[in-house]
Amino acid sequence: MKIISNILPFLILMISVYSCQREIEIELPNAEDLVVVEGRIEVGKSPIIFLTRNRGFFKEFPTDLTTLITEFVIQDAVVTVSDGIQTEILEFTINLNEYPFAYYTGTFIKGEIGKSYSLSIQANGKNLSATTSIAPPIEIDSSWFELNPFDVNEDSLGVSYSSIADPDTFGNSYRIFAKRNSEFAFYPVSGGAFSDEFVNGQKITFFYGQGEKPFESSGDFVPKEFFYILGDTVYLKFASIGRKEYDFYATLDQAINSNGNPFAAPTLVKSNVEGGLGVWCGFSVSYDTLIATN
User: Fold this and answer.
1) Which helix (H) or strand (E) holds 250?
2) By percentage, how much of the chain surpasses pLDDT 90?
3) DSSP 93-125
4) Beta-carbon neighbour count of residue 290 at 10 Å?
5) What is the per-residue pLDDT across 55-93, written as a single tens digit (0 to 9) for each?
6) How far is CA 39 from CA 109, 117, 150, in A?
7) Could you give the CA distance from residue 93 to residue 102 in angstroms, rounded to a whole number?
8) Whole-number Å distance between alpha carbons of 32 and 209
9) Domains of the chain, start order
10) pLDDT score of 221 more than 80
11) Tell me: the pLDDT tens digits for 267-293?
């Protein structure tokens, strides 16, 4: 009887809690219709502006390029770029040999070191604007390959390393792109945006795997496609970017890496585009090539 008397209050409590449960339905607001910008201008090259519609958090995103272009890419916008002297209205084009494949571009305005460029967009009844500039490039000191640092038993997969000498002026920011063997395009490396906030004026060594190709992620924490293979030819594209542009790419990486993690705090992606979402970024770049050898 003593055992029953000890258990009885617990059973009463559980029945009370269970009986108090009820279904709660929450109406989620519809996502505001916004224009998303991924724009860049590199030294010696015409601007490239990729415009898409945003997507609600719980709605599916297309997993193939054709659906992305037909349903999400904005193809009837008025896109204008100015360098302060010349102004050019960009034309929409589809080019499967240039990532992001469907974009607006021009012919006579080219990126120049030290210049600022303003972007104006009229799309979906909205007006967007942004400004960026092109900083001097930073040369790569050296590059080399090492086997997978996460697995001491690895004998074929690895990552590439490079080093630079950061200038003693505070606020330099960078982004890494890479490609391997016969790939035609450079793709951004996951987590490949960083600044000199804590290493100003010092030698910086960084490692990187393959660039992230659209529609090819395996979903693994460290996917096998991240690594290079012994014998690969690795091409590095190292870009100097502005601080606001770095803030966008850094917070974007944080948001992507925390997606699906119940313990991660939500990240607000910092856009430098007024009236919409995204980035307008000036690049100056340096290149290096290495052979993956042990």
Assistant:
1) helix 243-258
2) 61
3) EE-TTSTTSEEEE-SS--B-TT-EEEEEEEETT
4) 18
5) 655 556 666 667 777 778 999 999 999 999 999 999 999
6) 14, 11, 35
7) 6
8) 36
9) 35-133 (2.60.40), 140-263+284-291 (2.60.40)
10) no
11) 788 999 999 999 999 999 999 999 999
